[in-house]
Amino acid sequence: MNRSSLRSTWTLVGAFLAAALFAGSLPWLTGSDPARTVLRARQQERDADPAALEAIRESLNLPENPFIGTWQWLTRAIRGDLGVSWVSGTPVTDKIGSSLLVSLNLSGMAAAATLILGFLLVAPMILAVGRGRPAASPVLRVVSAVLAAIPEFVLAVLLPFIFAVRLRWLPATGWRTTEHAILPVTAIAVASVGVLLRVLMTAVTAVADEDWVRTWRANGARPGRISVEVARRALAVVLPQVLLLLAGIVGASVVVEDTFAIPGLGRTSLNAALAQDVPVVQGAMAVLVLLGVVVGTIGNLLHRWLMAPALGAGQGAAPVRHVAVIRRGWGWWASVTLLVVLVVGGWFRTSSVDPLARNSGPSWLHPLGTDHVGRDVWARVGEGAWLTIGSAVVLTLICLAIGLLVGLASKQGGAGITDILNAIPSVFLGVVLAAAMEAGLFTAWLAICLVGWIPLAVHTRTLAAEARAAGFHQAAITSGASSWWITRRHILPSVFRPVLGHALVRLPHLALALTALGFLGLGAGHDSPEWGKLLADSVLHMEQAPWAVFFPAMGLVLLGLVTNLARAE
């Protein structure tokens, strides 16, 4: 094992232990005595007298401080014992095991559907490469932008409303037969395929620029043979990310499982967090961390196995070309115009309650209709934009600052940390923090910031490594310049603009995470106009006022289109 592999292994072990330490100390992160929390969960009417608290500690073997508690939890978890539920008193391992099987089944089918749908959509692009045509596909780029911008929880609401309530073709909730899996798998796959499409398009474009493609074509290789090899190479590139997508779906499908009443890991964790049943949340987080490590390792091994023949034949990747050209077509301008009208137009309207105008359809007085208490939907959407888009902008800036600092400071390693944290999506992390802290907007912000900086840090580290290998960097070191001076004057200016563009592209993802937590009741407070909370309140009355769901959802889609349709090419 070389030094780099050894360093990555120790980084992975350290990150895993840090995550396990966090999981083990969850009962004390609530800021209150765990015995008091158990007593409140089991017997709300009983006073928290010393005798009752001591009885709880003895029955659950609760230690008095987080250090001993964390050590005991870790030693038991290694043996497969995750403790007992604070609410029901049943073993956590049994509950987590059964819910994990359901989530793995759901995420496995969703990941397979995502991969199949992604390759079907990108197939014309692969065939074009085989025939020697340009790999770029503007239509596919627009399709990926639209799919990536559709909120998963909106699909989880609309699909059962259309196909179960209106058409009565499929069951709306439950997890008993194959028919029960169709709608939730579709909701996850449609929301995930947009992200996968971007990865596939980038991979196919990079493979099309490799020297072996031109060599094969010049030697008379059949277009079909070239296309097959391009597809195999693209699959080798994206396979680790697809497997991590599967691990991420297990934690990120909280909304889908809750909406469809699927007894998976996400719904189990959400219910436990709302009931302050911390051991169940602990166990779910530990399982996700372990799953991230296993899936990340398998993905890297499969990637090396699939790439080995190509690398042995000299089919290396072509140098990456950085072209700072921003293309904004009519779709981008249309999305910007509609978003501005939707948001700014609502600022000049009033959202006062009018019981006589409840669930009124669009009219001259209320162009976007009214909600279930008679408030103007346009005004509510405009008010919520301050919280949703404004929060997403602030969170993007915070993640950008952290990503730049960490990326510039770290020169090697970090893959293990990325694999682990990728397996704990911000929505699931919000559930975990809600069990340790009071659910609210600050908790949602914290959950998003804890993982939102990672892609930006990885991007910064990669660009900084390229800059350090340049001649000007070596010349500055030879001249006696300090590392801080070189970073501030040369490296930071060279990496800032591309990382800033990356951060802007990720802005709608942070907005979707924030609204998903609000939709679950773990974000903005009661009666808030934040778009996720607005959707959660409107869904209950969707049959009488579907416009109250459509317009905040359209705002999220437009926000995603504005950033995804103006990417650098």
From TrEMBL:
<dbReference type="GO" id="GO:0005886">
    <property type="term" value="C:plasma membrane"/>
</dbReference>
<keyword id="KW-0472">Membrane</keyword>
<feature type="domain" description="ABC transmembrane type-1">
    <location>
        <begin position="381"/>
        <end position="567"/>
    </location>
</feature>
<feature type="transmembrane region" description="Helical">
    <location>
        <begin position="330"/>
        <end position="348"/>
    </location>
</feature>
<protein>
    <submittedName>
        <fullName>ABC transporter permease subunit</fullName>
    </submittedName>
</protein>
<dbReference type="InterPro" id="IPR000515">
    <property type="entry name" value="MetI-like"/>
</dbReference>
<dbReference type="InterPro" id="IPR035906">
    <property type="entry name" value="MetI-like_sf"/>
</dbReference>
<feature type="transmembrane region" description="Helical">
    <location>
        <begin position="420"/>
        <end position="436"/>
    </location>
</feature>
<feature type="transmembrane region" description="Helical">
    <location>
        <begin position="109"/>
        <end position="130"/>
    </location>
</feature>
<dbReference type="InterPro" id="IPR050366">
    <property type="entry name" value="BP-dependent_transpt_permease"/>
</dbReference>
<feature type="transmembrane region" description="Helical">
    <location>
        <begin position="385"/>
        <end position="408"/>
    </location>
</feature>
<feature type="domain" description="ABC transmembrane type-1">
    <location>
        <begin position="100"/>
        <end position="299"/>
    </location>
</feature>
<feature type="transmembrane region" description="Helical">
    <location>
        <begin position="280"/>
        <end position="302"/>
    </location>
</feature>
<comment type="similarity">
    <text>Belongs to the binding-protein-dependent transport system permease family.</text>
</comment>
<keyword id="KW-0813">Transport</keyword>
<feature type="transmembrane region" description="Helical">
    <location>
        <begin position="185"/>
        <end position="208"/>
    </location>
</feature>
<feature type="transmembrane region" description="Helical">
    <location>
        <begin position="507"/>
        <end position="525"/>
    </location>
</feature>
<dbReference type="Pfam" id="PF00528">
    <property type="entry name" value="BPD_transp_1"/>
</dbReference>
<feature type="transmembrane region" description="Helical">
    <location>
        <begin position="442"/>
        <end position="458"/>
    </location>
</feature>
<feature type="transmembrane region" description="Helical">
    <location>
        <begin position="234"/>
        <end position="256"/>
    </location>
</feature>
<keyword id="KW-1003">Cell membrane</keyword>
<keyword id="KW-0812">Transmembrane</keyword>
<feature type="transmembrane region" description="Helical">
    <location>
        <begin position="142"/>
        <end position="165"/>
    </location>
</feature>
<feature type="transmembrane region" description="Helical">
    <location>
        <begin position="545"/>
        <end position="566"/>
    </location>
</feature>
<dbReference type="GO" id="GO:0055085">
    <property type="term" value="P:transmembrane transport"/>
</dbReference>
<keyword id="KW-1133">Transmembrane helix</keyword>
